[in-house]
Specification:
- Its EC number is 2.5.1.3.
- The protein is an alpha/beta fold.
- The protein has a single domain, classed as TIM Barrel.
- It is built from 9 helices and 8 strands.
- Helix 1 packs parallel to helix 2.
- It starts with 7 loop residues before the first strand and ends in a 5-residue tail after the last helix.
Length: 212
Amino acid sequence: MKDAKLRGLYAITDSKLLADGRLLPYAEAALAGGARLLQYRDKSDDDRRRLREAQALRDLCERHGAQLIINDDAELAARLGAGLHLGQDDGSLSAARALLGRRAIIGATCHARLELAEEAVAQGASYVAFGRFFDSNTKPGAPAATPAMLEQARQRFSLPIVVIGGVTLDNSPDLIARGASLVAVVHALFAAESPREVERRARAFSELFVGG
């Protein structure tokens, strides 16, 4: 069942974008619009607040039949029974797999390098994430991935492939056609005036996968 969830919109939170009480209503709106994965990304050291917010997000995900992914905190993911996303400098994927168990969803950032994806697959990743594909507010200095590289990845790997970095409603269809299983979106989803607008955008992203 978990693999069936790894297709569609992958919503990623941003602590600055979703400050001032926006995190939970905006996240719920994204889930109501069809987001399949929701990544909680907060790099602060306020552990009590992060636990409280992550618990609330987990409950929202369960209500909407989606999966919560914790960014770069294997212990928090284990505590909540959530998934985990690791960057290249965020620790060992194989150690995280041992901690979280074989059923947990664990993803890995692979930038624009197929060899990093090979390593992630060998260490037990559930999905591999490539990016940035376009100019991105979140990752302005990240190396650029290309649609051609995405096609190569689709031919080489059977795991779901996530694309991130400047992904919008306009450029998502081409990435999906070239092999993206999930489109990871931050600003194009959450830089909105209201939860209603977030839900509208989420629904539009989700509809790109209908029938695919």
